[in-house]
Amino acid sequence: MNVVINPRKIPQQKRSKERYQKIVDTAIQLLGEVGYDALTTDLIAERSGISVGSIYQFFPNKESIIYSHAENCYLIMHDLFFEKVTNELKQNKKFTPGFIDFTLEAFEQTLSEVNGYHLIHSILYTNEALLLLDTESNNRFAKSLAEKVILAMFPKVNKKRAFYIALMIVESVDSVMKIVSRTQKPSEKKMVLAELKTLLLVYFSTFR
C-alpha cells in the first residue's frame, strides 16, 4: 500500500506557516534523536507543543512531514551549490584541475549547510517517494551542471552529450559521497575523495 506523502494543507498565513515549520523542524530534530522507526506524530506533538489534531490539519502522517522537509532540502541544496559555482565561473570559465577541487569542496560545504540533509539521506529506502525525490534531485543537478558548467567550459560539446556527461558526474559523486558517509576514519575519507578527484580529472580530460 502506498503511503500518502503530500501535505493536506499548505499554510498561507504567517501564524500557520510558523506552526507548519515548527512541526517539520521538530520532526527532523527527533529523527536525529530517536530514529525513523520510533518517530511518531504523538512524539512530535509532545515535543513541539502542537496538538496531534493540529498536526493532522497539515500532514496525514510522519512520512508526509519528512517528505516535505526532504523536498525543501533538495531545492535549497541545488540553489546553494550552484550559487557557489556561478560565482566561481565569473572569475574563470577555463577548466583547470583546481576547478574539481573547488567543486567538491563546495559540494561538501553545501551538504553541511543544509539542515537535516544527512538524516534524510540515511532513510531514503524507507519510502519509495524519497528515492524518487533523490533521483529527481540528481537529474536537476545534472541539468544545471550541463548548462552552467559543461557547456560554458567545453563549448564544443553538444547539449545532449553535456547532459549525460553531467549525469555521470552527479551519479558518481553521489555514490562516492555515500562511501564517505560510511567511512569513520578521516584519513580513509581523504583517500576516497582523492580517488574521486582522480576519476573526475581523467573523465574531464576526455572532452577538453
Describe this structure in words.
With 208 residues, this protein is an all-alpha fold. The protein has helices at residues 14-34, 41-48, 52-58, 62-91, 97-113, 117-122, 128-153, 159-182, 186-205. Helix 4 runs antiparallel to helix 5 (97-113).
Please indicate the percent range of residues in DSSP E strands (runs of 2 or more).
under 5%
Q: What's the mean pLDDT score?
A: 91
Number of strands: 0
| Radius of gyration from the alpha-carbon trace, in angstroms | 20 Å
Strand count, sense and barrel status of the largest sheet are: none
Helix coverage percent of residues?
Answer: over 70%
Overall morphology:
elongated
What's the helix-strand series? HHHHHHHHH
Q: Low-confidence stretches at least 5 residues in length (pLDDT < 50)?
A: none
| Oligomeric category | single chain
DSSP helix count?
9
Structural class: mainly alpha
In whole angstroms, how far apart are the ends?
A: 49 Å
Please specify the SSE layout and strand pairing.
Blueprint: H1 14-34, H2 41-48, H3 52-58, H4 62-91, H5 97-113, H6 117-122, H7 128-153, H8 159-182, H9 186-205
Helix pairs in contact: 1-2, 1-4, 4-5, 4-7, 7-8, 8-9
Q: What are the key terms here?
A:
single chain; mainly alpha
How would you sum up this structure in a few lines?
The chain has 208 residues and is mainly alpha-helical. It has helices spanning 14-34, 41-48, 52-58, 62-91, 97-113, 117-122, 128-153, 159-182, 186-205.
